DNA sequence: ATGGACGGGTGAATGAATTAACAGAATACC
DNA sequence: GGTATTCTGTTAATTCATTCACCCGTCCAT
């Protein structure tokens, strides 16, 4: 499995989400056809995507939901929980601190960082807030590998550099800028305005499906 | 321009973001090579992407930043502001209400909806809050075409149906579920946990670049 | 048992998208 | 003014992703 296409990985997350729901609703097994329909892709695609990682299906039966959930979690690396750092406790940062979806998927925010002296030393939503100076030491002590960056664009690159120096391996960036970073660090960017822009394009260009 | 690949559209937003910054910093023109480097793609890609929509560059010069910004805005449909509805004023919803990036890109949240009787009738961050019953009437009166859905997963599909009935054309969905919807409505999903999951995969599989 | 329907794995064929290569146009420099 | 350079638009080549078609295994009804 040396080269897994990026598109496959993002679909894997969607499969996982759907399978999780199905398993919780008590569905034992599901066929590639059904799963494909649920996600708007072909059955062949589902099978091929899974084939990248091994054999998981049972001929004549389909995929066992619960089993596939654990398999995909293993593949994605979320079979055991991650400790995550949050940098920036503004509007968005606070919302992320309280976001249930993270913990549900095995991501636990264990430390938050900000500049505001009123916040430093306190707990916000049960999470301790540290000064940015302490970034490196806290990250090392708690062996945190992932960080969420929710600071203003003007500070984003600088904070990303700090995180990199502290040995962070992945950054989820909410600032609307393209971060530059060494290849040893991975970044995923979420620009909320861009998502709306995509919607705007789709609407004005009245393209079918979605 | 009958069939523009989806990947092109999402890159267009990144170009726009970068060009916007460049223009503000006083840069007159930029070559496809430079722009590509800034975004981590090849110069050929930049040129090809733009070629989908017409001719914007000047041989021997490059692209004029300010000019290209307005051209892309025109293409994306954000050359004039959009009125947007927000459904769900929880943790995340409130953060989105206060998010600066939306207004900067021409998206104005003009109405919010929630179930909580304490909120209905009040203003949150200067935006009036309505009951869900009023969804259709408010949306029609203000001719709102886009909506942001920030409700718990359990309510997401139901609210999406309401929005559809009310004539909404595009939904930005933050609930971690796949919405089913008629082809006349476009949806873009943002699942924050999935983004972290993608990061997790990239980190454990130590794939280079990003 | 056994026939038929269901369903996954897999390699070949199709279709997209990215990259490479080049011809022509504007600029800068001497 | 000519020449070298820069840079676009575009066509061709390559790479990548998706779909198709078939084989074989499993289950269920008879």
How would you describe what is shown here?
The structure is a homodimer of 210-residue chains. Chain A is α/β, with parallel strands linked by helices and 210 residues long. Chain A has nine helices and nine strands. The first copy, chain A, has helices at residues 6-24, 32-39, 43-51, 65-76, 91-97, 100-104, 135-141, 153-165, 192-204; strands at 29-30, 63-64, 82-87, 107-114, 123-124, 127-131, 146-149, 170-173, 186-189. In chain A, the strands form two sheets. The first copy, chain A, has a seven-stranded mixed sheet with strand order 5-6-4-3-7-8-9, sandwiched between helices. In chain A, strands 1-2 form a two-stranded antiparallel sheet. In chain A, strand 5 (123-124) and strand 6 (127-131) form a beta hairpin. The longest helix of chain A is centred in the first third of the chain and has 19 residues, at 6-24. Chain A is globular and about 60 Å long. Chain A starts with 5 loop residues before the first helix and ends in a 6-residue tail after the last helix. The model of chain A has no long low-confidence stretch (mean pLDDT 94). At the A-B interface, helix 1, helix 5, helix 6, strand 8 and strand 9 of A face helix 1, helix 5, helix 6, strand 8 and strand 9 of B. The first copy, chain A, binds a DNA duplex (30 and 30 nucleotides) through residues 5, 7-8, 31-33, 41-45, 47-48, 50-51, 55-63.
């Amino acid at each position: 499995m040396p080269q897994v296409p990026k598109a496959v990985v993002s679909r894997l997350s969607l499969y996982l989400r759907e399978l999780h729901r199905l398993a919780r609703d008590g569905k034992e097994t599901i066929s590639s056809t059904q799963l494909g329909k649920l996600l708007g892709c072909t059955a062949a695609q589902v099978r091929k995507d899974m084939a990248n990682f091994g054999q998981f299906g049972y001929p004549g039966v389909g995929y066992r939901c619960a089993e596939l959930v654990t398999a995909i979690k293993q593949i994605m690396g979320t079979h055991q929980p991650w400790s995550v750092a949050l940098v920036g406790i503004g509007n968005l940062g606070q919302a992320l601190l309280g976001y249930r979806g993270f913990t549900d998927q095995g991501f636990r925010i264990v430390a938050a960082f900000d500049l505001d002296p009123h916040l430093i030393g306190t707990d916000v939503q049960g999470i301790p807030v540290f000064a940015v100076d302490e970034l490196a030491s806290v990250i090392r002590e708690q062996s945190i590998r992932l960080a969420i960056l929710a600071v203003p664009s003007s500070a984003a690159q600088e904070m990303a550099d700090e995180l990199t120096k502290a040995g962070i391996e992945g950054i989820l960036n909410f600032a609307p800028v393209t971060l530059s970073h060494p290849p040893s660090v991975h970044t995923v960017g979420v620009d909320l305005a861009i998502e709306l822009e995509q919607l705007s394009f789709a609407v004005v260009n009245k393209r079918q499906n979605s």
